[in-house]
Design a protein that fits this description.
With 63 residues, this protein is mainly alpha-helical. Helices cover 51% and strands 0% of the residues. It is built from 4 helices and no strands. This is DUF1858 domain-containing protein. It comes from Bradyrhizobium aeschynomenes.
């Protein structure tokens, strides 16, 4: 199942723990954040000022 912008951050990190390194590489400290269960990937990119397509590509490449 491909990763999408609509996927909740917490769900993604639990389902595919290898993505945690990508969050950290992009300086996104979503690991353990109480908001991660409410924000989807697009929300997290917006909040952290990360280019969404680059981030999604990096997430997809690590799985």
């Amino acid at each position: 199942m491909p990763i999408t912008f609509d996927e909740l951050v917490d769900d993604l990190m639990r389902r595919k723990p290898e993505t945690i390194g990508v969050f950290l590489a992009f300086q996104m400290r979503c690991v353990g954040c109480p908001i991660a269960c409410f924000h989807n990937v697009a929300d997290a990119c917006r909040e952290h000022g990360v280019e969404p397509d680059a981030f999604l590509s990096a997430l997809s490449a690590c799985t």
